[in-house]
């Protein structure tokens, strides 16, 4: 089978001082600035124009293609196989791919959503541009199902389905953003509605991501499941420097630091970051990791617990309590 044709240049160009700065592209795609520059050098894509100050400017087409590439990387393909392909080639690859069930922060081991009528109904609601109906549908599902099944059996596969719908051209970027905003509000409300214990139970978990990892919805799903287990959660949001993670863990006297990694990170960088963070953390502080990054799972690093699926969080909490 012949390989899809490479993308030699975007069909639309950016001239003068118009276009998107690299910080905006980083935010819209989840790809770090260093990754974008490295791909530019290695693959010749994306090849931005420059403004009068010499800063990179990217076109809307660049962003669209990069987001398609991110979807393919999430299925397990390597950058060398997809970076630089044109829109048609990327769309063809996306149609052939199925998500790998590796992520405990955005997927579960039940990654097939084709037979889930609730997921399809909610996808239709997203496409109808009715945020109130979407919020009500998700809120009612949470009350009916209970928080843990809601997160594991509905939110996780729905999040995957929303990403796939965008990649297939069914959704626009704003529709995906709307879903993220609505489900974030629903999960935050569900967490706040959980009864508080007179005496908080351990572990106290510090949740965040390393620099250049911008995905936050997975962390919120984990926080919801941990809160349901009566854990004390402290979320720092995304992209926290390693030194700050270690300092925050000490300041909050965290029992556990929980991190997520997408498939965009190079294996060597992930393992180096984990070794460095493990060395900076107190020996008594556990380090839990998960996500779609394959480097997390082949061989566990000393002092690091890798969780493949959301359903693996409760046993890990039980194990921690048994040993403490």
Keywords:
alpha/beta; Multidrug-efflux Transporter Regulator, Chain: A, Domain 2; Methyltransferase, Methionine Synthase (B12-binding Domains), Chain A, domain 1; Rossmann fold; five-stranded parallel beta sheet; three-stranded antiparallel beta sheet; globular
Structure, described:
- With 324 residues, the chain is an alpha/beta fold.
- It has three domains: 77 residues, Multidrug-efflux Transporter Regulator, Chain: A, Domain 2 (Orthogonal Bundle), CATH 1.10.1660; 76 residues, Orthogonal Bundle (Methyltransferase, Methionine Synthase (B12-binding Domains), Chain A, domain 1); 123 residues, Rossmann fold, CATH 3.40.50.280.
- It has 13 helices and eight strands.
- A five-stranded parallel sheet has the order 5-4-6-7-8, with helices on both faces. Strands 1-3-2 form a three-stranded antiparallel sheet.
- α10 links the parallel β4 and β5.
């Amino acid at each position: 089978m012949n390989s899809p044709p490479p993308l030699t240049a975007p069909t639309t160009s950016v001239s003068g001082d118009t276009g998107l700065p690299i910080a905006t592209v980083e935010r819209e795609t989840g790809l770090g600035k260093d990754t974008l520059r490295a791909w530019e050098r290695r693959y010749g894509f994306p090849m931005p124009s420059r403004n009068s100050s010499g800063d990179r400017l990217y076109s809307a087409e660049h962003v669209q293609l990069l987001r398609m590439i991110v979807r393919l990387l999430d299925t397990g393909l390597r950058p060398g196989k997809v970076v630089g392909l044109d829109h048609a080639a990327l769309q063809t690859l996306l149609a052939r791919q199925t998500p790998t069930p590796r992520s405990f922060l955005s997927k579960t081991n039940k990654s097939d959503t084709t037979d889930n009528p609730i997921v399809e109904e909610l996808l239709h609601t997203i496409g109808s541009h009715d945020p109130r109906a979407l919020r009500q549908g998700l809120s009612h599902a949470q009350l009916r199902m209970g928080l843990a099944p809601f997160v594991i059996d509905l939110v996780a596969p729905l999040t995957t389905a929303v990403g796939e719908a965008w990649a297939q051209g069914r959704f626009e970027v704003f529709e995906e953003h709307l879903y993220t905003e609505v489900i974030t509000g629903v999960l935050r409300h569900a967490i706040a509605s959980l009864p508080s214990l007179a005496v908080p139970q351990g572990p106290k978990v510090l949740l965040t991501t390393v620099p250049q990892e911008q995905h936050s919805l997975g962390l919120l799903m984990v926080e919801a499941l941990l809160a349901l287990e009566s854990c004390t959660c402290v979320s720092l949001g995304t992209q926290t420097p390693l030194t700050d993670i270690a300092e925050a863990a000490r300041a909050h006297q965290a029992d556990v630091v929980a991190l997520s990694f997408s498939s965009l990170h190079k294996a060597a960088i992930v393992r180096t970051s984990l070794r460095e963070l493990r060395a900076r953390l107190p020996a008594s502080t556990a380090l839990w990791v998960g996500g779609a990054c394959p480097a997390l799972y082949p061989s566990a690093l000393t002092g690091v617990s890798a969780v493949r699926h959301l359903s693996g969080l409760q046993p890990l909490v039980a194990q921690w309590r048994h040993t403490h």
